[in-house]
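Cross-posting from the modeling subforum.

Setting up a comparison between two proteins and wanted a second pair of eyes on the formatting. Protein 1 (sequence, then C-alpha cells):
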Amino acid sequence: MTVPPVLLGDDFTPLWRHVSSTLDRRGLADRGWVSLPDGLAPSVRARLRELVPGRSTRRLDLAQLDRALDRHGADLLTLLAAAGCPPSGRREARDADRDRRSRRDEALTAAAAEALGLEPWVVAWVGAVRPGLPDDASARVAVDTVARVLTAADEPGLRSRAEVAARVLGDAHALDRGEPARRLVGTALALRAERGHWDDADLWADAGLPGDLVATPVPTWALPLLGDGAAEAVRTATAAGAPSYLSTLTLRALIVEVPPGTVVLSVENPRLLEAAVQRGLDLPMLCTLGNPTTASLTLIRGLLAAGAEVRHHGDLDPAGVAITARLAQLGVVPWRMTAADYRAAVSPDLRPFDGPVPPTPWDPDLQRAMTEHGRAVDEERVMDELLDAAVREGRNAAL
C-alpha cells in the first residue's frame, strides 16, 4: 500500500506546500487543524471530504488525515515527501541545536570551574571560546587541553612550546599556528595576563611557552656586548666580519651588558643588516625579521635593561608601523619614521597597501600622511640613506 495517487496531482500541490510550511512552524509531530489555502480547487475539497469526513470546509484535521493514510500504509510525512513538499524539520533542528548548545554550555562551565577555577579570566575565557565549540564533548576536551598546557607551562625549567605540546598533548605540533589548541591556550594566556593578543609570541614566551629555543634566532651585527661566553663570541664574530645569530636559548642565559651610551639600530628587513656587514659599518644592529620573534624581543629587552638606546626603523606600511608601535611600548625609539620622512620618500610608482593605517602615536601626522598617499615605502628603498644617517649620528654621539 502507498499514497493514493489522486492525492499527488498538481491541484493538490498548494495544499501540501501549505501543510509542509505549517509543520515547519509547529513541528513535525503536530497533527492539529490546518486552514485550507485560498483558491483550492473544488475537486480537491471534494476528495478531502471523502478521505477525511467532517463538517468543516475551511480546515483540515491532520490527525484524521494521518489515520486515513495509515489505512493505505502511508502517513502524512510520506505523503508530503511523495508530493515533493517535504517539511525541512527546521523547528526540530532548532530545538536540537538549542539543546546541544545548552549541554555544551553546562559542560564547559562545569569543566572550567573544576579544572581552572572561578577566576575572572576563566569566566572570560569560557565566553570567548564557547562559540567555537560544537558540543559538550569538545568543551570538555578544550578545558582539559588548556588545563594541562597551563600546568606544564607553570612548572619550573626551561622548555619550548613544542616540547610541552609533545609531552602533554601527544603532538609536538599541536600548538603550532593554525592548530585549534593554539587559539584555546593563547586566549587563556592573554586573558590571564590581561595583555597582548592571543597569538603574540611575547605573550607565549612570558608564560613559559616560547617557540623553538634555537629556531629563528635574531640576526645581529657589531653589538658591543661586554663579558665572556656568548658576548665574547659576538665580539669575535664582528672582528671577523661576520654577523651573529643569537637564539632564544642563548639569550635567556646571557646577561646583556653594553658600554654607557650604546645606541643599537633595530631594522625590520635583513637586507639592511646584510648591507651593514658587507660594508663593515661600525653600526650596532639587530633585525626583527618582520614581526619580532621571541629571540629579537628577548634581546631588545636585555639591551634596554642594560641602558642602551634601541632605535627602530621599519617599512612605512600598515604592518611596519604596527610593529614599530608595539616596540615603542617596550621603550624602543621610532627612528626616521615620521610624516616628513614618509613624504620625502613616497612616490606614485611605489606599491599600494591595503587596509587602514594603525595609529602612530610618536608622530600622529604619519598616519594621516600614509592614509592620504596609500603607498608603501619599503626599508630597502631608503637603505643607503638610513645606514649613512645611522653611522653619522653614531659618530656624533661618540664625540
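Protein 2 (same layout):
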Amino acid sequence: MNILITGATSGIGKQLALDYAAAGHHVVACGRNEQALTALQQQFPDVIAGQQLDITDAATTVQNLRGYTDVDLVILVAGVCEYVDMNEFNADLFARVFEVNVVGTMRCVEGLLPNLKRGSKLVIVGSTARLLPFAKAEAYGGSKAAIHYITRSLQIDLEERGIKVLSVSPGFVETPMTEQNDFEMPMQVSVEFAAEFIRNGIEKNRLDITFPRTFGWFLKLASRLPQSWQLALSRRFKNAG
C-alpha cells in the first residue's frame, strides 16, 4: 500500500509513518523538518521517502502534492496548538492556528484529491477538543470543530467517487505538542497506542475514530447536555487545571 502522511516528523504522524513502514508499506513522510525527515528515511530507506512540506505555503504545497499520483491512503496529521490569553487577546493567534489546522489541511486535499482513485482513503486528524468548550482553547478547539465539520461533508461529497473519508479525534496523547501543556490531561495515552488505534480504525473503515474510548464517550455525552451544564462542566475542568 502507498501511504502519504503529513506531520510525519513528530508525534502521531511520525509514529504512524514508522508503524506502516515496519509493516512493509511504502510511506511518503511529509513535514517541515528536513533533518527529521532524513532520520526517518535512514530508519527505513527502502520504504520511506521524505517530502519537505510547509502547508502554510499554498503554491508549493499544492504543487508538490500533485506529483503523487498513486496513493492508496492519505493521513493528514499536521497541526498546531496555541492557547488564548484573555489579558492579551490577539486575533492573529486565531489566524495562525486556522491557517495550519484548517486552510493548510485543505491545501493538502486540494493537491492530492485530483489523483485519488476509487478505493482510496482520506483520513483527517482532528481532536476531541471539538466536543466541549475548554478554557483558552477558542482557537485550537474552534479549528478542530471546523475541520470535523469539513471532514463529515467530504464524506458525503466524495462518496460518489468511491473515496472513503475518515475522521480521527484523539484525546490527550504524549507528544511534543502536549508536553507544553501546564494542566492536567486526563486519560492521556502513549503515541504508540494512538497510532495503533488509528491504524485499526482505518483498516475497519470507521468513519469516526475517537480515542481513548472512555474519554471520547464522556465528551460525546457531555456535548449532548444542555449548554448551561456544559459550561458548568467546563468550569470544573478549568478549576481542576
